[in-house]
Amino acid sequence: MKILVTGGAGFIGSNVTDALLEDGHLVTIFDNLSRKNVYKNLFWLMSTRRKVRFFQEDVANYEQVKRSVEKMDVIFNFAGQVGVQSSIDNPMQDFNDNLLGTLNVLEAARRSRKKPLVVFASTNKVYGEFDKRTPIDESQPLSFCTPYGCSKGGADQYMLDYARVFDLPTVVFRMSCIYGTRQFGTEEQGWLAHFMFSLVNRKPITIFGDGSQRRDALFIDDYVNLCKTVMEQKGKVAGKVFNIGGGPKNTVSVNEAIGKMTRLVGGTDISFDDWRPSDQHTYISDISKIKKVTGWEPKIGIDEGLERLEKWCRNPR
After folding, report:
1. Which of 142, 155, 221, 225 would bridge with 102, disulfide CB 3.0–4.6 Å?
2. Integer CA distances (angstroms), 278 to 101, 126, 175, 188, 275, in order
3. Strands 53-55 and 26-30, how do they pair?
4. Which residues pair with 251 in a beta bridge?
């Protein structure tokens, strides 16, 4: 199949691209390379998978998107701005990257002859601020908080509406914590990789809040398998939204995660700072819907995932 991966040089995009190329698909990467260090992922893909096509373009530019979408069978829309604080600092850029960019992809897909499957990486932030210790399913009311929540939430709803109104096969993943190899994490996004890099290189760590906040963590290889699954089961998933994460079995707090990493690689200096705006204290995905519809579920536990992450962080080429 011909597949377009927007944000294909990013953490998730590069891993998905690699797997699709391995399976013999024709993959085109569409990425503006604005995120720090993603060029390393692109060089890795180009050096090991020479058949991949790459366009350094921006999803906020409709004409560029339109040219790339034509003749595609599947689009994985991973391009976008990924940080809450960045959205507060620059809400216009956040809007262009997330909401306008997604609408451009959808409109180009709607007008293409092939009507491709479009898979969108949304976020648990569309549910807003709450402190609910039980797993969250898709019936949780939406409550967009921060510009990031608004832009991703708006894009999320456009995806579902294009399925309803235009019969375009779309799928929305409302994602929790995805982590793993090829993730150049920061304090704002990709926290498990950020902490692991800091510990491996003996750099100090700042924890925002008291470290008790909890997330369900999904290793990237499991996410890649999910992407393959929805491609294979297009008819079952089209027009649907799914909460995606490691689920209750792979839930970990910030403090627990650092403890597990420290046992692997040793410690470093740790300090605490104020809570960040709209930081959900506890978010655990109820992943029963995606399992019921497709049979997919995570295979890699948090301990094994952190061990794999640690090995890559020591030699992140």
Report:
1. 155
2. 24, 11, 16, 12, 9
3. parallel
4. 216
Region of 26 on the Ramachandran plot (φ > 0 left; ψ -120 to 50 alpha; else beta): beta
For the chain, which residues make up each domain, given as ranges?
A: 2-180+217-248+283-300
- In whole angstroms, give the CA distance from residue 118 to residue 104: 12
Q: Please, which residues bridge with residue 270 across strands? A: 205
- pLDDT (tens digit, 9 = 90+) per residue, 67-81? 999 999 999 999 999
Task: Kindly report the pTM of this predicted structure.
Answer: 0.95
User: Is residue 148 annotated as a catalytic residue, yes or no?
Assistant: yes
Query: Which one of the listed residues 39, 62, 127, 148 is annotated catalytic?
Result: 148
- What does the CA dihedral 317, 176, 13, 76 come to, rounded to 10 degrees? 170
Provide the CATH topology of domain 2-180+217-248+283-300: Rossmann fold (3.40.50)
Provide the 10 A C-beta neighbour count for residue 202. Answer: 11
Q: For residues 164 and 281, which has the higher predicted lDDT (pLDDT)? A: 164
